[in-house]
Amino acid sequence: MNNEFISKLNDIAEQVNLYLDKNVASKDNLQKVVYEAMRYSLLAGGKRIRPVLAIEAAAVFGITAEKVMPFACAIEMIHTYSLIHDDLPAMDNDDFRRGRPSCHKQFDEATAILAGDALLTMAFEIASKGAIEADNVRGGIEAVKHIAYCAGTEGMIGGQIVDLDAETRKISEKELIYLCERKTGALLRVPVMVAAAVAGKENTSEADCLLEYADTVGLAFQIKDDILDVEGDINVLGKPIGSDKQEGKTTFVTLHGIEGSKKILRELTEKAFKACDRMRNFCKTEKQKEACEFLRELAVFLLERNY
Amino acid sequence: MNNEFISKLNDIAEQVNLYLDKNVASKDNLQKVVYEAMRYSLLAGGKRIRPVLAIEAAAVFGITAEKVMPFACAIEMIHTYSLIHDDLPAMDNDDFRRGRPSCHKQFDEATAILAGDALLTMAFEIASKGAIEADNVRGGIEAVKHIAYCAGTEGMIGGQIVDLDAETRKISEKELIYLCERKTGALLRVPVMVAAAVAGKENTSEADCLLEYADTVGLAFQIKDDILDVEGDINVLGKPIGSDKQEGKTTFVTLHGIEGSKKILRELTEKAFKACDRMRNFCKTEKQKEACEFLRELAVFLLERNY
Question: Could you confirm whether domain A3-22+30-304 is CATH 1.10.600.10?
């Protein structure tokens, strides 16, 4: 990978980590364990892809990272809560996450349920504060609404429900795509939606290009996950390999094989590149063009990642 | 009880039920089970005390029920999600709620976890839409922020965490009050906060009176629950009696006995009456005065309830 890209990716992740560390601070009160559990899972690393997408989409729209940061971090908090609840015994029953005990193993189930609930709730506290302090209050509150929609029954939670159902029967490719668009796609699309809302660029041609980019990368992201579940290295991935097969799940690999899935992945990356090229036509400043270039490299990074 | 009061209480509850039924509608898609589970718990009856408080507080501030309805119903949805998660095996492990199987018994644990998450998420979708459509957008978004704060780690979830800890050791009266102010108090206080925000009456003397009323009624509510856990009728209450004692929990009854707790309850109701009397001095129209009278009767209703 391009070193300049990696260095910028790390810089943005660092900004995000600082914001999260400051805004999801520990408190020394009777309920301090909930803050510890939230921070345990939230500050455990992670690629911060969703906030990075929001920040770079904002740059394409010509606004600063600062203006989308509360919304970007709210999305990351929601992503984290979903992992905590997903790992619970009643759900995927995963004891490890990012190479460490999952939240309910490190604490206990009740604390993990409440820490997840608390991250989801605080995401909306941070996002609504962000809206109040925004130059564009209406755009800010639209961003809050988009986050709730994409995290909810027609977005991420809807996808999780379909995923539970998919564990009990073979599903069609159409159903698998429906599942992915919601379970992982919605939270990769919403960073662009919040950036467009805050920038006052909703329903523009630029926004359409960025949404197509995000949807394409979102689907590619899931296919890559399916491939890594077969080919990945447990030490790099930080979670067990082969769990999909063990559970008899329908994935892109079971439908298209490894090589077929890799081919689809390359095609989707090409499609993401084309969306980037169209986006570039709308860019006027150097900063906007750089953000476009960064998003192009991000698609490659996600294609080539091994964790 | 005063029949006119009961009839008005039922009318408001009916308005709330209609709003919830319409806005948390079933959808016939692949994830329809999550809508069924949400509606199973949300539309299972319940006194709708929190929305009633928001609507009557709004009337005292001189604004219509319609203007606070999205926020009032968001609070009720959050109350419902907290009951679903509270009933889970890893939490209170209650198989019954309102005389029916609890959500995880009727469906399964994974669906109950996700239905709870979905109600919490959709609460913020409905509230943020409410803010966008409000005459007073800034007041609306302040209301969203208050809901997130009061439902979160310094509010309801904080109280639940302290409650888990309280099951493992004897706690002091000071700690018990800290717990109650958060676990049940925060969601009874926030209806007044959202009404004040939407009405543009935050930090006024009227708002102070109403907040004192809500805090007093909130504490009384918990003490009444503790008494009902000893003296209640399982058939009326719809849940088992004596569970606090069985779990060795510190309650107002274990600290002050039944008679002592009833005395505190009467004193708190007197305090709520006085807050109503002060509130009445700010009321100009008949409608405002009626709302004041209604809140006074509500305090009596909550004192005398047997479920």
Answer: yes
